[in-house]
Design brief:
This protein is α+β, with helices and mostly antiparallel strands. Helix content is about 45%, strand content about 15%. The longest helix has 16 residues. About 10% of the residues are buried. The two termini are about 15 Å apart. A two-stranded antiparallel sheet has the order 1-2. It is globular, with a radius of gyration of 11 Å.
């Protein structure tokens, strides 16, 4: 059984309680990209944003 991946906005230093879990990193990224774009005005298509998001995945 594969361990779930977790993402928390607070791990990016944001004052946000958003937390998401998924079975794998690809699924998790799909789920969090919309949130960071609308809630934090971050463009998830930018390489530096992708890198930050991936580093925050546990």
């Amino acid at each position: 059984m594969q361990e779930q991946k977790t993402f928390r906005c607070r791990d990016l230093g944001l004052a946000c309680e958003f937390e998401e879990k998924a079975e794998n990193e690809n699924e998790l990224m799909k789920r969090i990209e919309g949130h960071v774009q609308t809630a934090h005005q971050m463009n998830p298509e930018q390489p530096e944003v992708q890198e930050k998001l991936k580093k925050a995945v546990k």
